[in-house]
Design a protein that fits this description.
- By secondary structure, the chain is mainly α.
- 70% of the residues lie in helices and 0% in strands.
- The chain has 42 helices and no strands.
- Helix 26 (448-458) runs antiparallel to helix 27 (462-475) and helix 31 runs antiparallel to helix 32.
């Protein structure tokens, strides 16, 4: 049946259906027996055309994928009218139930799904119909019946539908007033999956269930912990509101202690939300906390001010803490860190180096500093004590300090970095013979492509240069930064840039194979045929996360691409597949075609640059969130998104939905368009995107007219240098793959000075 649905879709050029390979889906459903009943009816009753039924169900599935429930309802009723009985009628009733669900007509949806269930022969579709009927009952005001049906689905089914049913059963039990049962259900789920995506919301519901069951102390503790640990999550904010409302209503809800308020402020600091940190600390300080809490508050305030760029005020706060013997050791170490960073930004290099050298001996926690960063602090601080002189342009001093660092820390993870910055300092000092020797020492190892490229730039004679640039192409991954630069230099020497090479694609398997992965793939294909795209993708993610992911990678990628998804094909190609022609298109997909081209054209942005940014920022996952609070495909932080929304005239409420492509893609394109107007060169645009336009404008002004390859190597922020190299390379591969651009980069082109423009 699914094969016929998809063929009908192809005949009508419907986007979802036409993207699916008919032979691939057909092999999945050949053994399902889905066509048996309709085919038998067709043989016995030829005056009812099977084609009209196929077209109706296919049109309904397409309309559901398009978000058009009214059209889906009309199409499913048309299919039901010509095929009311048997499996054909059941499939039409299922389509009708899904259309009514999406229209919010839940009682009618429950009735349609109930009519479909006894006749659905396909077990995957029957499981989804049972789950969706439970959903419809829940939203129709019958949570008790919904809980029973969710429990049935969880007990009898497998895969993602059973997993979803377990979570929804807990919600239905709570809504039905079975609070103690709901508590047990939530606790079981959270114990089994402590890091689940639904975890914060489930903890909020658990707190409500505990309160409803009379366990007030546990409810308060659960709300409080969520408020502390998830301060930027909607569930965390809701937990705070619930505690306030409960206390205002006379409940025995103690106020948060100073330690709890400080823990929440520290978490906000880890999420790079400094203004919210300062607001939280203002409320704490107004209550006159005890001395130890006051010292921690002062440190967190200094760290937040440093994040905001208010270095002078941060220093004023930190200096008394650093010399206060009565302060906790972690507070003193944190104050030392603030002062080291502030001194470095003020170019007080000797002071900064000395403070970092002291921090290199630190072992322990620092309030407001993430545990991983604190753990790495001794090694990082020792390196920074030497590297700061390079960063400030004191190259002669940096050479000696970096050499000394390598001698004293031969096994550090920063050794290659130290050797690289020594070599680059020599290059900047125009001590070319020494620089050549330093680059040569790095020509074998993890940074060989960079060392070889800059050896070539310093080489005497065109033939020697050619030989070294060709060596870069051997050592560097195809399409990477130094490979593209080497290709551009070879082109300037008269050689044709390399083409985008990929191995021919092998035929896809004839079927999904046997065993659980094959069954899951087959189930996903059948769900897609019914218009249950999100549910089908959920099944594919199960395979992608399993131990058989490599063997099934090509099939998972092909099916996910058919569903309009870019994330899964990208992950499968990146992690499991050789770079064939097909896999390259999964590695560099033209994602979100319904939103991106128009958004980029409106903003004056290059859509290939937008795609390269998405690829690096979120790996095409629409709901991606970073530890710094960035959200969505292009990882905008809320303050930037709000500024963009005001410039672009976007309603403020939409900015709260950055996890939706229709919101984040236009805003990201608008931002890249504004940056392109100001900085012109894509590499400089990317530097501004990563480090901010204020910093990028300063670099572009100070180093205007430098060759691009030197300009990028001189970007002071290590993270930004890497970002510019990686995303520029992705951008050029996108252009080569989809627009026929050259697979090379002109590193000799001069960086233009910045224009007036966007500064946020």
């Amino acid at each position: 049946m699914d094969e016929l649905l998809l063929r009908a879709g192809e005949a009508h050029k419907q986007p979802l259906a036409s993207r699916v390979l008919t032979s691939l889906i057909g092999c999945f459903v050949a053994s399902a027996g889905a066509l048996t009943a309709p085919a038998a009816h067709a043989a016995a009753d030829m005056d009812t055309p099977l084609t009209a039924w196929i077209e109706g169900v296919a049109e309904s599935a397409q309309a559901l994928a398009d978000g058009d429930p009214a059209r889906a309802e009309v199409a499913s009723r048309d299919a039901l009218a010509v095929r009311p009985r048997g499996e054909g009628g059941a499939r039409a009733e299922l389509a009708l139930g899904l259309a009514l669900r999406d229209a919010g007509r839940h009682p009618e949806a429950a009735a349609a799904l109930a009519r479909a269930l006894p006749r659905l022969a396909d077990p995957a579709l029957a499981a989804e119909a049972r789950f969706e009927r439970a959903q419809a009952l829940f939203y129709s005001g019958h949570p008790g019946a919904a809980a029973a049906l969710f429990a049935e689905v969880a007990a009898r089914e497998r895969g993602q539908v059973a997993h979803r049913a377990r979570w929804r059963e807990a919600d239905a039990l709570l809504e039905a007033g079975a609070a103690r049962l709901a508590v047990r259900a939530y606790e079981t789920l959270l114990t089994a999956e402590p890091a689940a995506a639904a975890g914060a919301g489930a903890r909020l519901s658990l707190a409500a269930a505990l309160r409803a069951s009379g366990e007030d102390a546990r409810a308060v503790a659960t709300y409080r912990l969520l408020w502390i640990e998830q301060p930027a999550d909607p569930a965390g904010r809701a937990a705070g509101r619930a505690l306030r409302a409960w206390r205002d209503a006379g409940g025995r809800v103690p106020a948060a202690t100073p330690d709890e308020r400080l823990a929440r402020a520290a978490r906000l600091l880890e999420l790079s939300l400094p203004r919210r940190v300062l607001a939280a600390l203002d409320r704490l300080d107004a209550a006159a906390p005890p001395p130890e809490a006051a010292a921690r508050s002062t440190l967190l305030r200094a760290l937040a001010l440093l994040q905001l760029g208010r270095r002078d005020v941060a220093e004023v706060l930190a200096r008394p803490l650093a010399g206060n013997a009565a302060a906790a050791p972690g507070v003193r170490a944190g104050a030392e860190l603030v002062l080291a960073r502030a001194a470095a930004r003020a170019a007080r290099l000797d002071e900064a180096s000395e403070r970092y050298r002291r921090l290199a001996a630190w072992k322990g926690e620092i309030p407001g500093v993430p545990a991983a960063q604190t753990r790495d602090l001794p090694e990082d601080a020792a390196f920074l004590a030497a590297w700061l002189h390079y960063d400030a342009g004191a190259f002669a001093r940096a050479v000696g300090l970096l050499r000394a660092y390598v001698r004293s820390h031969p096994h550090s993870r920063h050794v290659d970095d130290a050797r690289w910055f020594e070599a680059w300092s020599l290059y900047r000092l125009e001590r070319h013979d020494e620089a050549r020797r330093a680059f040569a020492r790095l020509a074998r190892g993890p940074i060989a492509p960079a060392a070889l490229y800059w050896q070539a730039r310093l080489a005497d004679g065109r033939e020697r240069q050619r030989a070294l640039y060709r060596h870069v192409l051997v050592e560097a991954p195809p399409g990477s930064w130094y490979a593209l630069l080497a290709a551009g230099r070879l082109a300037a020497l008269g050689e044709r840039p390399p083409a985008l090479a990929a191995a021919p694609s092998s035929p896809l398997p004839d079927g999904p194979g046997r065993g659980p992965p094959g069954e899951t793939l087959a189930r996903a294909a059948r769900l897609l045929g019914a218009g249950l795209t999100a549910e089908a993708l959920s099944e594919l993610r199960t395979v992608a996360a399993g131990r058989d992911a490599r063997a099934a990678a090509a099939l998972v990628a092909q099916l996910a691409q058919a569903m309009g998804d870019a994330e899964l094909p990208f992950r499968m190609a990146r992690d499991h597949l050789a770079p064939t022609r097909r896999a390259l298109r999964w590695l560099y997909p033209l994602a979100f075609p319904e939103v991106l081209p128009a958004s980029a054209a409106h903003a004056g942005a290059d859509p290939h640059l937008d795609l390269a940014v998405m690829r690096r920022e979120s790996a095409f996952r629409p709901d991606a969130r970073s530890a710094a609070g960035a959200v969505g495909l292009v990882q905008l932080i809320p303050p930037t998104a709000e500024r963009l929304a005001s410039v672009e005239g976007v309603p403020g409420a939409r900015v709260q939905r950055l996890e939706r492509p229709e919101v984040s893609v236009p805003l990201g394109a608008a931002y890249l368009g504004l940056l392109a107007e100001r900085f012109v060169d894509p590499a400089v645009v990317l530097a501004a995107y990563n480090a901010g336009p204020v910093a990028a404008a300063a670099w572009a002004r100070e180093r205007a007219e430098l060759p691009l390859d030197e300009w990028v190597e001189d970007v002071p922020f290590r993270e930004t240098r890497r970002y510019v190299k990686n995303v520029t390379a992705d951008y050029l591969v996108y252009r080569a793959l989809w627009a026929g651009g050259a697979l090379s980069l002109d590193g000799a082109r001069r960086v233009p000075p910045p224009r007036e423009g966007v500064a946020f």
